[in-house]
Write a sequence for this structure.
């Protein structure tokens, strides 16, 4: 039996064919995934990964697609979206969230249970899996600050990592580009007065609304080349507002690229290359992408 036939007979999740990835990424650009599915069970996730490996078909596990630039040529393999794995519950004193739980849902769960910790992540359109892989952070606080343990699927088995084994760094963890798939994360939060939680969330949201552009983006395109800030370098280079086709550097924040409806991934890619080149020419600083390329560029 070939890979396609196995997919056709697969009953644990619905397999879609030639799916435009612009529908599944926050940039809203890019070509088609040859195969696409959204899983809602570990069994489906594991089985699809094993099948793809057996047939040597490329696969990519994604969360909410908020840090991805998918090539206009698409992805010639299987995209597995985890957003159906969206349970969050108490595990003794700790909170366990499955990989596909959105940060907003985790925040609501915390608020309802008077738990504080990740308010600064309000407004990040990520899943728990994607946020753990990237060690998402905002306003000096990272998701890893509250992680107790992370569970993955590795070679068909569940593997547990305690926080000190996760190798969390700035926008990085041991799970980034690894062969493991995160299935859940368990958190330690502290009790707090709900009014204080709400007011913290509101002030972080307000800051985002004031300083970050609306519209389709991937958040920050570049990592900050510490001690500098990528957005400030791009601003000083006079690149704010620069446009390539349907993609432009935001006027509100230099480290954001926003896309119009007619934008292509190639527009975004060329703009990224141009910004990198200019910043290096002017300041001798090399910028590295925070956004991840999927497919061929
Ligand atoms: C408007 C906006 C604001 C943003 N603000 C911030 C911010 O303040 N701070 C910040 O850090 N980021 C920010 N981001 C970027 C982005 O939200 C984060 O990088 C986030 O962690 C990505 O999560 P995701 O679920 O969308 O992952 P995806 O983009 O789907 O995937 C990102 C990476 O994680 C991998 N991955 C996803 N799920 C799993 C899994 N279960 N197992 C293994 N690998 C997996 C993917 O393969 C990929 O390599 C912002 C983005 C947007 C659009």
């Amino acid at each position: 039996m070939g890979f396609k036939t196995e997919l056709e007979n697969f009953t644990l999740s619905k397999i879609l064919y030639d799916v435009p990835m612009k529908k599944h990424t926050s940039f809203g650009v890019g070509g088609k995934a040859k195969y696409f599915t959204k899983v809602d069970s570990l069994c489906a996730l594991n089985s699809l990964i094993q099948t793809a490996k057996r047939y040597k078909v490329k696969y990519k596990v994604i969360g909410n697609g908020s840090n991805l630039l998918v090539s206009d040529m698409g992805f010639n393999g299987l995209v597995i979206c985890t957003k159906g794995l969206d349970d969050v519950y108490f595990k003794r004193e700790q909170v366990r969230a499955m990989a596909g739980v959105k940060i907003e849902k985790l925040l609501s769960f915390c608020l309802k249970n008077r738990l504080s910790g990740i308010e600064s992540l309000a407004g990040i359109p990520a899943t728990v899996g994607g946020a753990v892989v990237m060690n998402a952070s905002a306003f000096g606080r990272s998701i890893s600050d509250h992680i107790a343990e992370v569970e993955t699927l590795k070679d068909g088995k569940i593997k547990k990592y305690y926080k000190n084994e996760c190798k969390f760094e700035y926008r990085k963890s041991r799970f980034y580009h690894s062969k493991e798939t995160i299935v859940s994360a368990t958190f330690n939060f502290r009790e707090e007065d709900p009014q204080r939680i709400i007011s913290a969330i509101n002030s972080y949201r307000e800051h985002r609304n004031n300083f970050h552009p609306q519209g389709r983006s991937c958040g920050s395109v570049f990592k900050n080349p510490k001690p500098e800030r990528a957005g400030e370098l791009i601003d000083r280079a006079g690149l704010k507002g620069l446009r390539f086709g349907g993609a432009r550097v935001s006027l509100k924040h230099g480290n954001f690229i926003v896309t119009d409806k007619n934008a292509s991934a190639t527009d975004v890619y060329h703009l990224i290359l141009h910004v990198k080149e200019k910043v290096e020419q002017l300041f001798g600083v090399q910028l590295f992408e925070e956004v991840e390329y999927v497919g061929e560029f």
About this structure: The chain has a mean pLDDT of 97. Residues 26, 60-68, 82, 99, 124-127, 129-131, 133-134, 136-138, 175, 181-182, 217-219, 292 surround flavin-adenine dinucleotide (CB under 6 Å).
